[in-house]
Amino acid sequence: MLQMRFEPLNESDFYYLKEFEPPNWGDLVPRFRYCIDSVFCDPIKLVVGNRTVAIGTTIFHRDSAWLASIIVHPDHRGNGYGTKITQQLVDSIDTRKYTTIYLDATDLGYPVYKKLGFQQEAAYAHLRSAENITGMQFSNKIISYEPGYFQQLLQLDKAISCEDRQDTITEHLATAKLYVDNNGVKGFYLPSLGNGLIIAGNDIAGIELVKCRLENNYYAILPEANKATIDFLQQNNLVQFRISRRMFMGKGKRMEKESYL
User: Fold this and answer.
1) pLDDT score, position 258
2) Per-residue three-class SS string for 158-223
């Protein structure tokens, strides 16, 4: 019987990540490079014999944790490796400190996570266009990040996400864009965080920040509850091609409507 073990994933593993890429996920190397470099992440791999069969990572905020990029190699699916690496990631989390564990489940992963005890909290719509959208007219309320708005930004994020993500957000403020109305931050866009995080307190701010994002991205992921933003994207020729599910273990606490792309 082949030996099974969990090991840290590092840059020497990048050469085979292409084999793991699910359709429409894009290049895995940048996301795992970020995870390796960040003190708030713990990427691992499951090795059977001398072959890496599954990969994944934890991402830690101050009071919650996410499981992300959990992928089983296509040649090794159906052997329970997705369950094993997910359980290993869960077991590595101190649930006294991180009272909620989240993940975003594809159709393939959903039954695995449900069996492990994760519950669905919301559904995300995934939309894309054949090419980037150009010619958008941008609001003059969109500004580059200024330190004076830091506390407002954090308060807005915590109000909407119900997580304390200060450490992660701070890493990505250099390229941030803010939607400021009457000297108040109503939304923000972090191009370098994940797929490009947008948090907005209302539909107007969300749509205006989405316009910025569409300059360089032809896809979007956001809660199905964000009907106004989904309508805007569809009017600009983005087509929904799948859904995923936000799931949690532990204390459920997130609000339903969040702009996340």
Assistant:
1) 55
2) HHHHCCCCHHHHHCCHHHCEEEEECCEEEEEEECCCCCCEEEECCHHHHHHHHHHHHCCCCEEEEE
- Closest C-alpha among 14, 64, 6, 5 to residue 36: 14
Identify the H or E element spanning 230.
helix 227-235
Order across the sheet with 142-144: list the strands.
Answer: 142-144, 177-181, 184-190, 197-200
**Are residues 89 and 58 in contact, defined by beta-carbon separation less than 8 angstroms?**
yes
Place of tokens 């994944």: 56
Q: Which of 58, 60, 245 is nearest to 163 (CA)?
A: 60
**Burial (CB count within 10 angstroms: exposed 0-12, middle 13-18, buried 19+), residue 172:** middle
Per-residue pLDDT, 257? 54
Tokens found for residue 227: 């009907």
Q: Residues near 243 by Cβ (< 8 Å), separated by ≥ 6?
A: 123, 124, 125, 126, 224
Separation of alpha carbons 251 and 232, rounded Å: 33
Q: What is the pLDDT of residue 218?
A: 84
* Ordered mean pLDDT values, 10 residues apiece, the chain (261 residues): 93 97 89 94 97 97 96 96 98 96 94 96 92 82 97 96 93 96 96 91 95 86 93 93 94 60 52
Residues 6+ apart with CB under 8 A from 237: 129, 130, 133
Per-residue pLDDT at 2 = 83
Instruction: Return the biggest CA–CA distance within the chain.
Output: 66
Strands 177-181, 219-223: pairing kind: unpaired
For strands 119-128 and 239-250, give the pairing. antiparallel
